[in-house]
Amino acid sequence: MTRGTGALVGSFAWPGGGFVDWCVIRGHGEVEGVRVRDGDWVVWCLSGSVGVVAAELGALPPPGSSSAPRLLTGRRWRPPGPLRPR
After folding, report:
1. Beta strands of 1-86 (E only): which ranges?
2. Helix/strand/coil for 83
3. Which residues of 30-52 are buried (b: 16+ CB within 10 A; e: fewer)?
4. Residue 21 half-sphere exposure toward CB, CA atoms < 13 A
5. Would strands 19-27 and 41-48 be described as parallel, antiparallel, or unpaired?
């Protein structure tokens, strides 16, 4: 995890490229879990408490799985501060 502007940020870039899971923790009840595709297009997102978001993000199927979310929501997402996978 990396400390960003007022947040702890963790990311996992899935092998094969294209998908990155992010977790942004701003406070105990202020957490966002996000899976993005192709840089910043949201395919899954959840906000809530640390326990709820961690459990749901941990249970999310790998991107290559038939049950994994793939549909772009039309929403773009960027991590806080200068934090982006290279």
Report:
1. 2-4, 7-13, 19-27, 30-37, 41-48
2. coil
3. ebbbbbbbeeeebbbbeeeeeee
4. 17
5. unpaired
Give me 6's structure tokens: 């007022």
* Residue 36 one-letter amino acid: V
28-32 long-range Cβ contacts below 8 angstroms, 24+ apart: none
Instruction: Compute the distance between CA of residue 7 and CA of residue 29 in angstroms, rounded to an integer.
Output: 13
Nearest to 36 by CA among 4, 6, 14: 14
Per-residue pLDDT of the chain (86 residues; tens, 9 = 90+): 444 456 778 899 999 879 999 998 887 778 999 999 988 899 999 999 988 998 999 999 999 899 998 877 778 888 776 545 54
Nearest in space to 40 (alpha carbons), one of 9, 74, 6: 74
